[in-house]
What does this fold into?
Amino acid sequence: MLDNAPWAPLAASALTIVLILIIAWVLRRVAHRVITKVVNRAATGGSLTSRFRKGIAVDSIDALLNERRRQRAETMGSVLKSVASVVILGTAALTVLDRLTIPIAPLLTSVGILGVAVGFGAQELVKDFIAGMFMLLEDQYGVGDVIDAGAAVGTVEAVTLRITRLRDADGRVWYVRNGTISRVGNESQGWSRAYVDVPVPYDADLVSVRAVLEHLGEELWADTEFREAKIVETPQVFGVEQLSDSSLVFRVSVKTVPAAQAEVSRELRLRIKTALDEAGIPLVAG
Amino acid sequence: MLDNAPWAPLAASALTIVLILIIAWVLRRVAHRVITKVVNRAATGGSLTSRFRKGIAVDSIDALLNERRRQRAETMGSVLKSVASVVILGTAALTVLDRLTIPIAPLLTSVGILGVAVGFGAQELVKDFIAGMFMLLEDQYGVGDVIDAGAAVGTVEAVTLRITRLRDADGRVWYVRNGTISRVGNESQGWSRAYVDVPVPYDADLVSVRAVLEHLGEELWADTEFREAKIVETPQVFGVEQLSDSSLVFRVSVKTVPAAQAEVSRELRLRIKTALDEAGIPLVAG
Amino acid sequence: MLDNAPWAPLAASALTIVLILIIAWVLRRVAHRVITKVVNRAATGGSLTSRFRKGIAVDSIDALLNERRRQRAETMGSVLKSVASVVILGTAALTVLDRLTIPIAPLLTSVGILGVAVGFGAQELVKDFIAGMFMLLEDQYGVGDVIDAGAAVGTVEAVTLRITRLRDADGRVWYVRNGTISRVGNESQGWSRAYVDVPVPYDADLVSVRAVLEHLGEELWADTEFREAKIVETPQVFGVEQLSDSSLVFRVSVKTVPAAQAEVSRELRLRIKTALDEAGIPLVAG
Amino acid sequence: MLDNAPWAPLAASALTIVLILIIAWVLRRVAHRVITKVVNRAATGGSLTSRFRKGIAVDSIDALLNERRRQRAETMGSVLKSVASVVILGTAALTVLDRLTIPIAPLLTSVGILGVAVGFGAQELVKDFIAGMFMLLEDQYGVGDVIDAGAAVGTVEAVTLRITRLRDADGRVWYVRNGTISRVGNESQGWSRAYVDVPVPYDADLVSVRAVLEHLGEELWADTEFREAKIVETPQVFGVEQLSDSSLVFRVSVKTVPAAQAEVSRELRLRIKTALDEAGIPLVAG
Amino acid sequence: MLDNAPWAPLAASALTIVLILIIAWVLRRVAHRVITKVVNRAATGGSLTSRFRKGIAVDSIDALLNERRRQRAETMGSVLKSVASVVILGTAALTVLDRLTIPIAPLLTSVGILGVAVGFGAQELVKDFIAGMFMLLEDQYGVGDVIDAGAAVGTVEAVTLRITRLRDADGRVWYVRNGTISRVGNESQGWSRAYVDVPVPYDADLVSVRAVLEHLGEELWADTEFREAKIVETPQVFGVEQLSDSSLVFRVSVKTVPAAQAEVSRELRLRIKTALDEAGIPLVAG
Amino acid sequence: MLDNAPWAPLAASALTIVLILIIAWVLRRVAHRVITKVVNRAATGGSLTSRFRKGIAVDSIDALLNERRRQRAETMGSVLKSVASVVILGTAALTVLDRLTIPIAPLLTSVGILGVAVGFGAQELVKDFIAGMFMLLEDQYGVGDVIDAGAAVGTVEAVTLRITRLRDADGRVWYVRNGTISRVGNESQGWSRAYVDVPVPYDADLVSVRAVLEHLGEELWADTEFREAKIVETPQVFGVEQLSDSSLVFRVSVKTVPAAQAEVSRELRLRIKTALDEAGIPLVAG
Amino acid sequence: MLDNAPWAPLAASALTIVLILIIAWVLRRVAHRVITKVVNRAATGGSLTSRFRKGIAVDSIDALLNERRRQRAETMGSVLKSVASVVILGTAALTVLDRLTIPIAPLLTSVGILGVAVGFGAQELVKDFIAGMFMLLEDQYGVGDVIDAGAAVGTVEAVTLRITRLRDADGRVWYVRNGTISRVGNESQGWSRAYVDVPVPYDADLVSVRAVLEHLGEELWADTEFREAKIVETPQVFGVEQLSDSSLVFRVSVKTVPAAQAEVSRELRLRIKTALDEAGIPLVAG
It folds into this structure.
């Protein structure tokens, strides 16, 4: 039958091609929609961290989190949509070429050789993107957080799927590839803790040292400049951390608002020094 | 025969397609059921740890463990079900396309190239999931446990198949990828042990030192605030751990309830100092 | 011929399928039997360690070793049987599908893509299982042994094909993946050795120091609390290990029963201190 | 039909070949245009860093950044164009050979074997190029910046897709492969921070020390040689950083223009020494 | 022809199958013979070490080496024979199945997928075996040698193709995988060397110190308890190894029989101390 | 048509073969020419370093650089030509075999298996060659340069595509594989910098110390033995590098000709000591 | 035609097989000849090191180098010849089997699966051989040289393609795999350099110290026991290497014959001590 109607294959081909293109276009739209929905749902309510943060959230933090959520959804969505488009349109193109009886083997060969060559080297890139994707999905950190990314410690200035940009305490700007971050420590979630070790002489009166330190903790908690604004609970005096022939080390610990531990411990040190001076208890080499 | 009945292939195809879809649907349901059963059995009774914990379990711990078991079963099941669905439905789709004589080679090529490209980079992801799966299966740790995950040490706040979220003593929140955890140390299973090293002068009376320390141990065990609540056996005085020209080091050891070793050893240090002061035995640089 | 007898292919197919299933069932049974036999033989008499241990084995140790042997055979056998079943039944299923002229290419494609994707990530898992298999086969350690697994040191609490569970001296429970253990040190096989270094002053009488230490060694060996129960030979006095302007270091060495070296060396230190005190020889900083 | 007209296949082939060559030529031009556009857009406005730098940009910096932008676009474009040309022309060549019924299998075999052999070893090369590409795209650093590339720290002298050339403080020229740089610290973006630790005696008057240091900070800020030219805000006196029996450590911190921290801290040290000398406050071992 | 004689293919197949099985059986025997011969030759005369050892070999050592040679040949041969059998019989089986027109593709698919999955994980195993094979072939060490295997140092207790079992000085038994041993240090081949550093005061008479030490070396060589039995040449006095304001360090060196260096140097230290005491030359801190 | 003329295929084959050989020969010549040109251009003008060096180049350096350029072009060209020849001639050979209807599958199989086996192990080799190729192309270093190659530091004695041969300060000759060099530090490009730290007592007169050091710098610059020949600018006195209770550290810095920093700093130290002695300012422990 | 002459294919096959075997035999001989020639040329004149050594070569060294050259050529040739034989004969065997219409697919499958399984694990082995091959080709070291192979330092006792056997100063024999040696330091090529640091008091007369040291250097050079036999140039006195409040460090440097630096520096230290004693200049702690 086909041999008798020379136009038949062409017509059939044309029809098939149109059909393929329509299907591809529809599929692509559907894929994009699905991605948008999934990503929005993932960004909005699903992540562990956002729920965790709500506990201490005030209105402005909520607004900030909403903005971060929107950005995350957008960043993730754009890459997934690109991938979906490339796969669907690439498949459609190859099918059309095949239908036109144009040999696609040479093309596949060229692309394949290039693909393998690049593939080996591009692993790291894909690793970075996957790491970035999940990092966003799990909302591990955002702009403004103080994080420890292993390779660098500092304040996050920008987050993309491939890299995280930090600025450290010396003003150095760090570009860290997401795939090289095997664990992240975020200092800006919930609370931080400040420790001050107080080495007193071996023959100091343990009871009065403890009393001085505990009184000082209550003072700090009473201080409106610190309470709630910088610390979130009364400082605690732990027992004897270390024991030697020359000194006994007391430890004072206090929960602070996120990333305020350095400032609080500096203030604590000053006050402890003054209070012990007043009580006539000297400090010794720790 | 086929050439004579032009509708025959179509009819055959249609029939085959319906058959394929039905089989796929049935298979998927069966797979899900099997997964549910297997996962539940694995989570309920099979894990080593849960059996181990029963030894010291009280009612509330049992309830907690039941809840953890349920969550683990759910987490593991959801991923396995997704994988099963994707494989079964993907195979069905390809078979249908093949039956419709639509060429699937171009599609496979596109997906294949993408698959290889992503595959190299996604190894780490798969590794994380497999590690997480087995970690849950073996119940290595759960929310609330204090663990040493190598990259970070702290209290577990959340466990997913990909990451474990910890909070360390400084309040820093750590996100650790499960695949990077080659060994886990769990401090919250059964008991912990506190050690206090007591360096006494070279010419101290060994017998009386030992007596003081042993008496102190019995006192602690008699103290209702510690017995059972914080320590689980009478503190033991080990012999001479170290021998030099200036000091002899005695070691006091005590089994505590999980993760209470820091608190107990602080109390011990304080009491030893007081007791030795009373007995007139000085401490020296260890 | 085939075209004339339409039922022929069907009948042939049905026959072939039945044949295939029977063969598969037979093969599977044979494979399981072979595995059981091989594993039992491997666990019973072949391993180096069990033969080594016999040297010091008493009845109770023999019973323990028999139990360990049985468990090892079971653990190894179960996995090998699962693998054999999957291969034989999978092959049979594919052959049947093929005979039914159902296209298996799409199925293979789906499974293949998934297989490669997972394969990369699952290497570690397979590595763990292979390592665990050989570890069991060679009986490197068992429950109750004190081992150094690199990542953690402690008493083995459980051994599976994937992980080894240890409890260290602080009560921390460690889960170590078998594949990450490149070398294992087992302290519970045969004997251990305790060392005590004795630093005496530069002008001490070498002959009398040696005499004191040797006499003390004989006393310990004569002490029924230690002989056989804790130590397995008379303590030996090695010569001068170190030479400086302030001290000469003698070393006392003694073979103990497995894992008793800490206890024995503590006792030794105490006795050496007392004996040298009596002999009027002071100890100096080592 | 084809069998009857012997010239037909040749004519058809000739036609096809011409068509292929035309399409290849068109495609190549289109690809180059697209690359030029995309790269220009990426280099011009999209990068995070350039937007960030604008904040402190003066005219000359703008000119510099424009030049850098142009160079980046060119460097990236040239490689992408080469790749596009090779793929398109290679495919065209293979298709032509195929149409001429010249067997291409042997050629593919030779190239394939060579490709695999080289591919394994060339991974690092591809990695370097991909890293360099993204580094340029994200404008992580440029000629003249002081960077910490891990393997070496110094001033960037040249940037290519494969390597970055630095000169360190000792005059040593470093060639660092881009792929080996897992994180980059750029000291020339925005600002740097200088720290000077001031250890004062334990019994020093804390209030007057702080007063001296604060007064000194204001003086420096008032000094036109430093204000704006070298420092960008008034130096700040942090509280007590460290606390021991011999000293109290105050920390002075000041934001400087990029990479001026060494110079500023040297000047600060000199001034602090002089000021404390005048105030009669000695420095102690920190 | 084949279509006319229905029994022909069957007969031909049967014949071919018999032929295949005979060839396989013959090949296997030939392969085993060749392996036995090659391995024996490799173990007997070819290895570098055995020739080296002959230099100091006495009869009993020769017997020992012969036994070691026989064991090595056996260990290596058994694995190679297994591999040869599996390849030859596997090929024969597949060829027979193929001749019987049973489809072998599904079988190959199952085995292939399993093979790839396991292959990745089993690399380490193959690496261990290859390393063990060459280690035996080159006779790097044997039971009773004291070796440094990197991960552990001790006396070899057992050698298999996969692991080496050592016992260290503390009695700990180490299982080291052969593939993880990148370099081995064998202390039991030929000779060892003992060093003793002798720090004398800055103003000591260099000539008389040297004389004392040289005289002592000759005495040791004259001592029949040491000569030949423990040391293999007269101890040598090296010049001034180190030069400072407080001391001059002389070094005494002596070649001992393998692994006797610790014992010899202990004796040397004792004698040097005594000799210098007699000569009135004090030792100082080195 | 072909079936009727039995000689036709042979004739066609012969013709094709001759054609193939001619094309191969032509292609090979063209490839060699192109390689020669490209390599020459790359070596002559394109590299960053050669342009950089011109800045301080005198005639003899120019001659040296020309020689180095010629050698580099030759080294790179020879390998590329070998690769091109192998690919072109290999393809031609396979095509000829194919045309002669000789089965090439077995050959490809043998070569393929060998290729894969070797390929894995040869990665390092290819990596070395690629690294060497780019190193030459970018003219990172040449014979006579003093470089820091990570694994070894010394003077380059020879450069091949696979290794770099260095001789270090102790006369040790190092063979470093190019692929293991991730970053190179070249001390012989442009200039080096010598630093001398001068610790003066805490109460020293800062102004007069600075004056002494600056005067000394000018003297050195005036010294014709040093100016231009060894140093390339007046030595600079940096401010106070370090601040403690016992000393103030001044730093003197001077740009020298490449690799002369050790010699210059030795001379500087001697002069500073003498000058400060004369000025009555003592040095203290830094 | 073929169908009509039943014996034709057989005859043709027989002929082809004979032809194949003859070609294989010829090819193998040619390959061996080529390898012999290439390897001889590579070993004789081409290597960098041998040319370098000629500079200081005496007759006996030339003989030694000739012997080493011959051995190297043999070692390299034997492996290359084996590889060539295996490839040529394997290809011939497969081609013959193919001609005999024996199905070779099952054989290839078996060998292929085994090949992949072993290939992964054997990478290290191939790496070792390739490293050894190039090491020999470049004559990096030979028996009798003192080398630093990273994992071990000592005198080379044997070199094979897979391992290098060293004996270190303590008499320990090291087996180092060639592939694990990323860089080699050879101390036996050309010359070595001995350094002695001479710390003199801060107030010592620099001129007279220098004079004493320089005089001593000339004496050593005049000493026929050292000149040419042990040192190859007059010892040089470098300037002040280090500068502190307590000492000035002079450095004396001397080029020695290869590997004689320890012996020469010991002698130098003794002479410097004596000479400074005579000159009344004390040494201080460096």
Remarks:
- The CA atoms of residues 119 and 126 of chain F lie 9 Å apart.
- Chain F has six helices and eight strands.
